[in-house]
Every structure is written in structure tokens, then in C-alpha cells.
Amino acid sequence: MGNLAYICSRVEDKKRDYAQYDFSNVQDDALKTFFDLAQEFESLEDLYLVCVAVPKTHFGLDTNFYLMDNKREVLVLVCTSKEGYQGSPDKLSPSSIKPRNEAFIENNSLFTPIFGKTATQDVGASTKKQALLGMLQVTPGSNLSESEKFYFQKFANRIGYAIYNRILKQRNVEHLKFIESLVADIEHNVIVPNMAFRLFLKRLKAKIRKNREIESVLQEKCSELAENGTVDHVWQEQVMAELQEVNRGLEDEFGNIEKHNHNVSLFVESLFRRSHFQEGRFIPRKRRCNFKKQIIDPQLERYQERFHSKGITIDNQLGGVPDESIVVVADLGLISQVYANLFSNALKYTRTVHDGEGNPRTFVAFGQEVLKDYFGSGQDGIKFNVFSTGSHTPPEERDRIFEEGYRGTEAGGKPGTGHGLSFVKRAVEIHDGEVGYESTPLGNNFYFILPIE
Length: 453
Prior knowledge:
single chain, 3 domains, alpha+beta
């Protein structure tokens, strides 16, 4: 609000508050220690440990720190002054402690609620709109005086402020990284492929120009025929045949533009969703998909002519993907881009090899296979493969090929940014899947595995 007088009045309010609190030197030192260390340690895990270490060190009290899991509406024990950090909150079992909005004594322990704004609230939201973030447990707590209980309430308030600010900072960093990556996604998967429109439009313009020339000739000839009263049937057939060919070409080019527009529109929609920017990460819109008809065939059609022009055949030796494919729940746009990136890589790096009988082979193949209980008992996975012939990726590079910006020695002077496989990894992982690479006798297989839902 930029009002100095108001700020000064709030400072005076705090002076009076702290005079009334009458905290001891040890209590003051504990608050100062917490404040200093909350700024010093960067990670949330370390901040949680500071929350339990300060009461233990300054007051000799065993301390447990619980976080609220809002999805499950339970408290989870995140760390203790005895055993340290327990693990990621979303992977911990619910605690027997019930969430409450007021302090209470139970089993010789003081439980104090921790309030604060949640990470999903707007940055400018009123600080009065606070939610239960967790609880602080100190033991023994039965013999604490009312002033000591009040002190731990204020200590819990400091924890709430610190946690919110840390989560907000972490979220902002994640947002920046996401936006940087999204810019690369747009360039790699939308802007560069969209340049194909220029080629289609150039072809279409040439067909239209030819059609205009034929129209002009036809008009002149028809005028002559009208004047002479004669009709040249041979000429008429030639003109009509040429006109039909031009019209077929116009229809073909229109079809190319229509398909390309559909594909780019699908990619743009899947990359520019409001939910991505709100959450700072990809938020998939999953639906039941027939992989062959809805994902693989449209992407393969985009690359088929380019494969053919480079002498690369499409082989179904991996079994292909049947029309009646196992239905998988996935984000149609994002997984389509996974295949687009894998086919694009295959186009760049497929090379001729010789099979066991000495025959030259240059091909790409794709297929699927069900992996029983891959994601645990009763949770099958389905593995999708995209194979291409060529020399193997060196062993020392295989652990890095899915890293952002990494390009292997095979890349040479080929155009690229090292973003494609990184996108594949992220798009598959948000579907709770896995990506991988494996060498085979004739080349390289890139695959991803999704759970069958």
C-alpha cells in the first residue's frame, strides 16, 4: 500500500505486543535462531528439521512436526527431533493425530496448530485467510505454563510464515523452469513444424496459378470455337485431363494443409493450457485412447513421405500396433508429441545396417507389448517401442540421452537442440510411466511404458 505512517504504526503495535509477551532470554534466542536458520537453509526438508531442532536444543523438549495432507485430509509425521526427516509427505502413512484448529494436550504432549496461507492462494491474498498447514508436538507438555503454551503458539506462527514463503519461493522457481522449458517445447514442437505450411502453401499457389493459365487458354479456345462453329475433341480431352489433374493436386494440397492444421492445433492446445501455467507443470487431460488410430497413425502419416524420400522403410517386425489395441488412458496431445519426437529422431539417425545374412536394411519399426505386473501386483504396463536401424548409442551416453539439452556424439552437425527426448521423458512421467533405451542387433529401440488403467 506504500503508506509509511501505517507501517510505522504497525511497528509500534509490535513493540507493545512483544513487551506484553515478556518472553525470556532463552525464548527470544530460540525465535532468533529459528529466523536465522530458516533463511540459511534452502530446502524444505532442512526447514522442517529446523522446526524440531530449535525446541529440542533450546528447551530440551522432544519435538515432532506434522504436515497437513489436504488431499487425504490427514496429518503426516514429517520429521522428529529424535529420528530426523521421515520422507516426502505424499508418501507417508497418515498419523493417528487428528487435525485440530486449536492447541491441546494429549499423552503428555502439547499439540499446537500451524497456520499459514497455502501455496495455491494468490500471492496478494489477505493474510487473514489462513489454512491449517500442520501441527507441532512438544513433549513433555503437560506441565507447561500458560505463558509457555502461548510462546509455542507464536513459535508455530513463525513456522507457518516460513513454510509458506519457502513453498512460494520453490513454486516460483518451478514456474520459471517450466516456462523456460515450455518456450523450448513451443519452438521444437510447434514453430519449427509449422514451417511446413510454407511448403504446402507454395505448392497450392503453383497449382492455382496453373489452373488460372488453363482457365485463360480454355477461355480463348472456347471463343475461337464459338466463332468458327467447330469443336476439337482431342484438344478438349487434353484440356479436361490437365484441368482434372490440377484439381486433384489442389485437393491433395488442401488435405495436407487440413491435416497439418489439425496436428498443430492439437499440439498448441496441449502446450498452452491455462492449467499448465497455473500449476507450473504439465497437467495431463487423460482420456481413453486407441493408440494406433488416434496417435500413431496420424504422426506416422506426417513422416511417411520423408521416410520414403530417405529410403527408410516402415517395418512391423516389432509386432506393430493392432487396430484393436489395448485402450490406454492418456493425454492425446502430449503422447502424440511423444511419437512425433521419436519419429523425428528416427528420421535423423536411421542408418543402413546389414543383417545376419549380409543384406542391407534401412528401416524403422514400432510396436507394443504388455508387461504383466510391471507397476506392481495386478498393475500391468504396456510398452510402446520405436526402433530404427543404425549404430548403437555409446554406453557412456545412454544415461544422459533424456537430459534437457544433451546431444550425443552421433548428432554431429545435424540440426537439433537436445530437447526432444527430454520432452518425451517429462510427458511420459506425468502419466506415471517410464522411458528407456535399449540396443538391439540391428540398431536402437526407444520405448516408453504406461500403466494400463
